[in-house]
Amino acid sequence: MSKSIAVIGLGRFGRKLAESLYELGADVMAVDKNPDIVTSIADSVTYAVEANVVNAQSLQGLGLGNMDVVVIAMGTDLVASIMAVMVAKEQGVPQVVAKASDKRMGQILTKIGADKIIFPEEETGFRTAQTLMMDSFLEFFDIDDNLCLLEIKPRPEWIGKNLIELNLRDKYRVNVVAVKDQSEMRSFIDPKRPLEKDTKLLVILEKADLGRLK
Fold first, then answer.
1. What angle, 0 to 180 degrees and rounded to 10, lies between the N-to-C axes of helices 78-90 and 103-111?
2. Does residue 136 register a pLDDT over 60?
3. 8, 29, 118, 141: which could join 149 in a potential S-S bond, CB 3.0 to 4.6 Å?
4. Would you call 79 helix, strand, or coil by DSSP?
């Protein structure tokens, strides 16, 4: 079942995030106060909505409580971000992610209930989309335009099986470059050693194949 994610605020970061989430298979509601922006993104998301994001009543009418995740992407507007975080939490959204322009803003948004803070100088819309869509992702690193390096947890069905049995290269088009057990990273990989619950895998793959790991 695909995730339902609302992105409120469609600046450069928010727009890229919304479009990337939609490309990865999420049901995306994109929200902004600018009607031109809403119109321009309508074909790239599940549905686009024009709303006054600084008005509590307008936010309450969006039905945020039906979402798995709400991303507040208005990093320069503290008042609007506070209002959106509060409404989302009041409506019972399981995960509220908020963009902050600085550490102080991040502290304030955390104080009022944001579950995760994103700083635009450290994150990209594409990278954030991967993190939100893939629950098994621990770390995501860009290598170049086509390749990425991931640290992931093994899926429940992988535990107890070894890399030969899993055949990850053929099934998911990933190359395992290291295994981490009990905080120790090992580049030498025993392909016959069964994966354990606390095992972490460092893998390289093409970004186009990220959807295979969903």
1. 30
2. no
3. 141
4. helix
**Mean pLDDT, residues 63-79 taken together:** 90
What is the Cα–Cα distance from 85 to 69, expressed in whole angstroms? 11
Question: What is the residue type of 88?
Answer: A
Q: How far apart are CA 210 and CA 205, in angstroms?
A: 8
Count CB atoms within 10 A of the CB of residue 151.
Answer: 17
Show the beta-strand stretches assigned E in the chain.
4-8, 27-32, 47-50, 69-72, 95-99, 116-118, 137-142, 147-152, 175-181, 184-186, 200-206
Evaluate whether 109 touches 97 at the Cβ level (below 8 Å): no
Residue-level pLDDT at 147: 78
Q: To which residue do tokens 């409580």 refer?
A: 65
Q: Are 72 and 98 in contact (CB under 8 A)?
A: yes
CB 122 within 8 A of CB 111: no
pLDDT tens-digit map of 151-210: 888 888 889 998 899 998 888 888 888 887 765 667 677 888 888 888 888 888 887 777
Is the pLDDT confidence value at 48 over 90? yes
Cβ proximity of 153 and 200 under 8 Å: yes
